[in-house]
Specification:
Blueprint: H1 3-30, E1 33-36, H2 37-42, H3 44-47, E2 52-58, E3 64-66, E4 71-78, E5 81-88, E6 99-107, E7 113-121, E8 139-143, E9 146-152
Parallel strand pairs: 1-2, 5-7
Antiparallel strand pairs: 2-6, 3-4, 4-5, 6-7, 7-9, 8-9
Length: 159
C-alpha cells in the first residue's frame, strides 16, 4: 500500500473511532435509569448524586408546601415503601392524593430525592388532543402509554 492510501485509511479509521465515541457519549448522557420505589430504596446508596427516574404514587398525608420558598415536600410510595422527595417550583394543581408521578433527579446524602423534573399523571378527564393545543403552555409526556403533565424544578437549573 502506498503512503497516500495509508494516510487516507488512517484518517478514516480515526474519524470512525471519534464518531463511535461521540455516539456512545451522547447515548450515555441521554439515558436515565427508571426505577420503582423498591428498586430505588435497595440501591439508594449507590445512586447518590446520579440522575434517575423513580415512579410511584403520592400519598395525600405526605404533602407539605411552603409558598414562600416554593418548596414542596412529599413522599413517593409503592407497596407500602416510601421515599421522601423535595421539589422546588410551582405547586402542581393535579398533585392530589394517590396521584401517579415520575420523578427525575437524584438522591442527596440525607436519603431524600431532590426532584429536578416532576411528571404528574393526568386525570382521565384529559384527552390527547389537549396536549397539542397551541394556546396551552403545559408540557406533557407519555410514558408506557400513560400521559403525564411535566413540571420543571426551579433549582439546580434543571438537567
Amino acid at each position: 500500500m502506498d503512503p497516500r492510501r495509508r494516510k487516507v485509511a488512517f484518517a478514516l479509521m480515526l474519524v470512525g473511532i471519534v464518531l463511535v465515541y461521540l455516539i456512545a457519549t451522547a447515548a450515555s448522557n441521554t439515558t436515565m435509569y427508571y426505577l420503582t420505589v423498591e428498586e430505588a430504596l435497595a440501591r439508594q446508596d449507590e445512586l447518590v448524586g446520579r440522575w434517575v427516574r423513580v415512579a410511584g404514587q403520592v400519598p395525600g398525608d405526605s404533602r407539605e408546601f411552603d409558598p414562600r420558598g416554593f418548596r414542596l415536600a412529599f413522599d413517593v410510595e409503592q407497596d407500602g415503601k416510601r421515599i421522601p422527595a423535595v421539589y422546588r417550583g410551582v405547586r402542581p394543581d393535579n398533585l392530589v392524593d394517590g396521584a401517579g408521578v415520575v420523578l427525575e433527579g437524584s438522591f442527596n446524602e440525607d436519603g431524600a430525592f431532590e426532584v429536578d423534573r416532576l411528571l404528574v399523571q393526568c386525570a382521565s378527564k384529559y384527552e390527547a388532543a389537549d396536549r397539542y393545543d397551541s394556546e396551552d403552555s403545559r408540557a406533557y409526556e407519555e410514558i408506557d402509554g400513560v400521559l403525564y403533565e411535566s413540571y420543571e424544578s426551579g433549582w439546580r437549573g434543571g438537567r
